[in-house]
Amino acid sequence: MITQLSQLDLNKRYTYADYLSWQIKEGIELIYGKITAMSPAPVRLHQKISMVLSAKLYQHLEGLACDVYTAPFDVRLLIDDSESVVQPDICVVCDTTKLTERGCDGAPDIVVEILSPSNSKKEMGVKFNLYQDAGVREYWIIDPTYKTVLMYVLQNGKFVGLKPFVSGETIRSTVLPEFCLALDKLFDD
């Protein structure tokens, strides 16, 4: 039985079945079949932003055919022959046939990742490519330090970045056009 990350070969490719069989206490994700350790517990501001945004999304989605989920929530993505299992900070799923007891099988419609000093390279590079390849329709990267939101919209299989949104502005989703959020409320601490 695998109980520690040190028992695994980090150069090997693994499957979702492998991932489910492990009893590892540390947070891990599987990206293109490769194991990556998750960042330690997020700081308070990260958690507050996550809670404010997920609450606003939950209120907006009430009575609609979409659901919002927050980490830890497994999102399983199959791209070519590589399996990935990630736990986005927030995701919105409008195709309920993708939902399972364990999480989401397939690309959510919206994925939100909140940066922290230890995860910005992964969120800005590796996960950007993963979410684009998987067909996530809208990807938000929130930077609490600079009070900005970068929104990428999938067009013809590639993410296109909109202008950066900053504190004092209102952001509007392209996937959920009726959903808008004043960023002052998101970054108010």
TrEMBL record:
Keyword Nucleotidyltransferase in annotation: no
InterPro entries for this protein: Nuclease_put_TT1808, Restrct_endonuc-II-like, Uma2
MF (Gene Ontology): endonuclease activity
Putative restriction endonuclease domain: residues covered: 18-183
Superkingdom of the organism of origin: Bacteria
Record's keyword terms, sorted: Endonuclease, Hydrolase, Nuclease
Annotated PANTHER family: GLR1098 PROTEIN, RESTRICTION ENDONUCLEASE DOMAIN-CONTAINING PROTEIN-RELATED
Protein name: Restriction endonuclease
